[in-house]
Amino acid sequence: RIHSLALWNATTGQHLTSVGEVEKQALSVLEASYDDMWSGSGSAALQRRASGISNADSDFTSSGYSDGFGSDAGSDLGSARSLESSGQAPKSASSQLGSITSRASKLLGKGLKLGKKAVAKSVDKVYNATSGLAAEELNAPGQTHATVVDANGNVWVVYNNGIVELYAGKGQCLRSWQEPDPVSCICTVGSYVWAGLASGQIKVWDSEYEVSATWRGHRSHLVSICAVSSRVYTLCADGCLSGWHHKTPVEWREDRAARILSRSTEFLTTSQLTVFAGTWNVNQMDLGGIRSALPRWVEAGAKAADIAILGLQEVEMGARTVAESIVKETFAKGMQEKGNLAAQTWFQEILGALCKATGHQWIRAGTRQLSGILLGVYVRDHLGKSVGEVETCSVARGVMGVGGNKGTVGVSLTIHRRRLLFLCSHFAAHQNAVEKRNEDYSAAARELRLQGSDQAGVGPYRGEGSLLGDAHLAVWVGDFNYRVDMPYSQACEAAYAKDYAALRSMDQCLREMAKGATFVGFSEGELNFPPTYKFDKRTSTYDTSEKQRIPAWCDRVLYRTKRDSRIVLPGYGDLGRKHAKNFPEEPVTCVLQTYGSCHDIVESDHKPVYAVLGLAVRCVDESAHRRLAAEVMAEMDASGGDAGGVGFSEASQGDSGVGGFTITNAGQRDIAFEVANDEDNYLPHLVLMTPTGGLVRPKASTTVSVGVNSDPTLSQSIHRLEQIKLRVTFWVYGLKKTTARTKVVTTRLQFERYFHSI
Question: pTM of the prediction?
């Protein structure tokens, strides 16, 4: 994991310097300790590292529970790195993880009381154990991620931890800095250096190493970036490939952008879609008792839908299920995405209900489970090819602050390249727990992030993370547990009399939304249906038990869109509104069509709730857009001028004794060049030429050195060569196709210098 850089003289083969000698020593020690670990010798170094893991024992036993489980917890969790006495290699990480998961589930299921910090600390140690890295090893220097030589001949070295170093040709470190957003790929584009960042942004430095431009090129991290003639191509992890003119945005002219935008109707269209969003707390009913009700629920609004979002709460509960949720959230979040066997059965049953109720074919696009909270997202078969980038996430807010009996799950996906986010929650219960419910909302808005992504940014609203903030459409369903602040008898009377206005005036959720304490920026349809909680089972009678829970709209559907014309057509900033007639302000427009509940379904103590939303999704016809953009880029190429002002002269030998020639650029544009043998397109054996290509800045020159290895032990036939004809192709950078010219240069060969292969 620790890399060194070595520098040799390409002419003499002399080793000049290495970067990372200290790290190399540390690496050799680390490798030795790993050899000990796999050989089973139990070295002192390994034992010292393993002892850090066994300290997890104290985190568990300090809680005061020693009923035969406290000591087991420490030993079992602390043995993830221990070597088997047989001397064989340790168990695989997956088998260790399975053992740890099983033991932790049993312990937590027994009601082991741990502080949240103790849980987090122990979890961190065990996770490090299963990954094969001790905590102190995780702070090792970053890996060398990429290197590139710029137009000045300096070397950029990029590390995966965000550090960027700049070296001179002879190995001196000129600059070193930390990029807040790590660089994932880099390339030289003329006199500029372009970098793709982990956030999807593109950053450009000029020849003076000042930042020339930064813009959002993609939605997620860039995988590759390369320059081809006057175009720069960037590839994103989500599969999106974008092309840019090498002047973009350094010399991008608004009048050329306006030409494209004024014809936006040729490539910007709108797709009309219908979304059915539903939520239901099934009150721990088994699937057999709910199965017949599922088609009745979905047929209420899904018949004309293209997308269906269905959230369930209290699907399966119990101490062991909650404990398993804690462990899965910590070690194996991918298992939560797939769901356990019971969850898979529910998801499949919902799919069948959709097909049965609508008479159409549906595809399961994404699912997520968190203990008893389930969220399934389904799309009609005609949308299958338009759906991509499906990812899931969750935030647990239940037992000890990490249990899955309360919390939020999310499914994020794109349709026609627009980011849609669907969330399902189960917030804190009880009439007076308003602040706790607000905290559950804030935790979800702040902490939800996709697995493996770095989304530590902020959204448009205070305390909100970038996942929610970046969504073009967010639909949030769930049992939010907000109640009605009204006496029981009065609330029941209003509910039976359909005096919903009186109940709405005392609704906690509406009040907290007005204060900006929950669901900031979200909209909801008017509550013109009976409160959905709480009923005597298998009736539509509000709670008549001794607890007499007050009727309330615990179950809701809310939605929010992002108003930002700049993301309707990325890369044009605010120019769309300025130069395109009726340019849309939102990438996705959402209109509520129906909002109601299924009051006749009596299988649970909650009523199912649903909403039907009409979406207008702005779609870009990329082929048509590329054709227009190509026309404008061709104009930019034509304005590049020619490769005039380039001269050639015999290089001054000086003390080197090496032949060659000098290319001088007297013009105003960067000149690129390539050198090849004029006759065979490759150099004769043992002829060394440096460089074979490159860039000549305006009012500057570059010397191409040409020589022959004159080692007397080698064939003497090479000594018959006294001169060589070289073909030099040169052009205005980025305009090879239109400005390329050729010059044949005859240069003498020198034999005074040895050239050694490395």
Answer: 0.67
